């Protein structure tokens, strides 16, 4: 979280000092050169209000498109120059930042301390995985979910919490949203989306979590071990207890089915039919 926050603490330059930088073509070339590195964009957008506005209007979207092209094409249904629900900065943050968890936010997880958010070294988002998080009646929705990021539940303890995140395509038109509204589920008190700060629904409260399939997909330890929240803009964040793996197990999780069109996030283009990657570092 530190570096994400520190972006706003970067000293503002005076206008004459940076006016030459506010040139879209120049910035485009610079960011192509640094492979659309998210930390660089955080720093640049903190330099002045003009650069911040330019990033918000253009650069965050370009970063998402360059770093996770297929996932973005799927989420926008090919119209990548359009707006996206919740905004491009929030989606970029979701792609590259594990939000951790506020200890008071979880219903089923008694956490003795908050789990700190951080830039994710590498994240793998998958639409096939996302299907395991949809209630049977909502399987027509498109949801991308990341692999869980491992956090120690307490200092020096052996219990491991998995933190994961995801995003719906066209959430306003989704069956999941329709069911949440139909069931008249209220927003969760005291919990906000770590990506866009909007209010969230608890999918646990809504009884819309297919516990077994979601737990199996996450490599989690059984019934009641999975919970997640979905915000007004269709961003998902959640927790699970992870089975403690020996080093021999490799921590690879459930790999029984090869994904059709998942998305990794990494610096190197890893195309082919499988997935692509975007790395935050
Ligand atoms: Zn994490
Ligand atoms: Zn959100």
UniProtKB/TrEMBL annotation:
Q: Which SUPFAM superfamilies match?
A: F-box domain
For the region Disordered, what residue ranges are annotated? Answer: 249-281
Feature: compositional bias, Acidic residues: 251-272
The protein's superkingdom reads: Eukaryota
Q: What is this protein called?
A: EID1-like F-box protein 3
Ranked from the top, the taxonomy reads: Eukaryota, Viridiplantae, Streptophyta, Embryophyta, Tracheophyta
Under the heading InterPro entries, the entry gives: EID1-like, F-box-like_dom_sf
**Which PANTHER family does the entry mention?**
EID1-LIKE F-BOX PROTEIN 2-RELATED, EID1-LIKE F-BOX PROTEIN 3
């Amino acid at each position: 979280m530190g570096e994400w926050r520190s972006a706003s603490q970067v000293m503002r330059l005076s206008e004459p000092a940076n006016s030459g930088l506010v040139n879209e073509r120049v910035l485009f070339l610079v960011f192509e050169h640094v492979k659309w590195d998210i930390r660089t964009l955080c720093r640049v957008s903190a330099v002045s209000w003009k650069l911040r506005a330019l990033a918000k209007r253009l650069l965050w979207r370009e970063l998402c498109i360059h770093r996770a092209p297929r996932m973005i094409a799927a989420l926008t249904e090919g119209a990548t120059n359009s707006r996206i629900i919740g905004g491009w900065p929030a989606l970029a943050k979701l792609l590259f930042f594990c939000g951790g968890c506020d200890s008071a936010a979880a219903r089923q997880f008694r956490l003795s301390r908050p789990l700190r958010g951080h830039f994710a070294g590498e994240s793998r988002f998958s639409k096939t995985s996302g299907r395991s998080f949809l209630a049977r009646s909502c399987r027509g929705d498109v949801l991308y979910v990341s692999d869980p990021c491992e956090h120690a539940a307490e200092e020096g303890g052996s219990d491991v919490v998995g933190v994961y995140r995801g995003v719906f395509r066209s959430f306003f038109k989704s069956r999941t949203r329709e069911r949440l509204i139909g069931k008249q589920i209220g927003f969760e008190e005291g919990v906000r989306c770590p990506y866009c700060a909007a209010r969230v629904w608890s999918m646990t409260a809504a009884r819309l979590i297919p516990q077994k399939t979601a737990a199996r997909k996450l490599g989690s330890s059984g019934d009641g071990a999975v919970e997640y929240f979905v915000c007004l803009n269709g961003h998902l964040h959640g927790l699970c207890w992870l089975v403690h793996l020996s080093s021999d197990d490799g921590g690879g999780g459930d790999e029984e089915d090869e994904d059709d069109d998942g998305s990794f996030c990494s610096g190197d283009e890893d195309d082919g039919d499988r997935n692509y990657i975007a790395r935050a570092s």
